[in-house]
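Milestone M4 deliverable, item 7.
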Amino acid sequence: MTPPSSSIAAGGSATALVTIRVPADASPGERYGVVWAEIRSTASAAGVNEVSRVGIRLYLSVGPGGAPAADFVIDSLTAGRSGNGQANVIASVRNTGGRALDLSGSLELLEGPAGLRAGPFPAELGSTLAIGTTGSVKIELGAEIPSGPWTATIVLRSGLVERSARAVLSFPDSGAGETVRVQGGSLGLRLYLFVGLVLVATVGVTFGLMSTRRRAKTTRSR
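Output delivered:
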C-alpha cells in the first residue's frame, strides 16, 4: 500500500494505492480479502490500546481470460413469525456461479385474503455469499400481515445478475411455517422467450400474408 501511513486532518481525506502481485504459479479461482485503515491510541496506564478500523472488501479473480460469471438460484421460501408476532419470509439462495455475491432486492405479497396486496419489502443478505455456498435472505414484513394464503414474488440481484421467484405462502401463528419450493428464474431468460415468441408469431403472420397474396395473384392470372 502506498503510502503505508498518512496524517489526515479533521474533515480531510487521503488516497492510497493498493498493488497486488499475483505469483505466476497461483491456482485459478477467486480470493477474498479486505483493505482497511486503522488508528491506534497510545497505551493507557493499564496497557490497553483503543483501535478503530474502517475497510472495504476485496475480490481478486485469478486465472486466464475474463472474470468468472456470477449466477445464483432461489431454491425456496419459508414464511414465519417471530416471538413478537412480526411476519417474515426467508429465501434460500444458492451461489451457482464463479463469483461471490452481495445480494439485495425486494419481496411483494399479492392475491392475499380479500384481494389484499402488500409491499414491496426490502431484502438484504447482510453478508457475502461465497462460491458454492447456500445462504438465507430474510425479509421483515411487520405484524399486521394476515395469515394468507398469499402469492409471494421475490426479486434478488447481485450486480447485473437478477433472478426472480414466486410461491404461495401462508404465515403461521408463530415460528417457521412450511418451506415451499419456488417457481421462477431469470428475468432476462423470460424476456428472451417472450421476444422469441413475438418474432415467431411475426414471421408466421408475414408468411401467411405472402402466401395469400401469391394465391390471389395466381387466381387473377388464370
